[in-house]
Write a structure and sequence with these properties.
Blueprint lengths: L15 E2 L1 H13 L8 E8 L5 E8 L7 E5 L2 E5 L1 H7 L3 E7 L2 E7 L5 E2 L5 E3 L1
Parallel strand pairs: 1-6, 2-5
Antiparallel strand pairs: 2-3, 3-9, 4-5, 6-7, 8-9
């Protein structure tokens, strides 16, 4: 399955999702009983952490009216306008390692991160 070229069918800022991350998220969506053709992964930025901002992710039944919607490998990703200012150009990946497995955001806008990598500053 391929990834869409642009959000909402138009050119603009991008959020990428790797195939591994999309597969993991779709599996979790399915286990929650959510319809992946409507529901999706919400990626957002919130105040918190030792560097000032942190990422948040959750599943939403449907997008909000002002969300930018990205579709990658069948996964819909919803991003609100305020969060887009901090995370445009980011790549969401799923990593496994000695410290466990989980989703990771590679954000080109970050100027510094805390030591554990859970929070950031732009």
């Amino acid at each position: 399955m391929s990834t869409d070229a642009a959000p909402n069918g138009k050119d603009g800022p991008q959020i990428e999702v790797t195939e591994d991350a999309a597969e993991q998220a779709l599996s979790l969506l399915d286990s929650e009983g959510l319809d992946s053709s409507v529901a999706g992964l919400r990626l957002f930025v919130q105040q918190g952490g030792c560097a000032g901002l942190s990422y948040g992710m959750r599943f939403d039944d449907e997008p909000e009216s002002d969300d930018t919607i990205f579709t990658h490998y069948g996964l819909r990703v919803f991003v609100d306008p305020a969060s887009m200012n901090y995370i445009e150009g980011s790549v969401v990946d799923y990593e496994t390692g000695l410290q466990g497995a989980g989703f990771h955001v590679e954000n080109p806008n970050v100027v510094s991160e805390c030591g554990c990598g859970e929070s950031f500053r732009t």
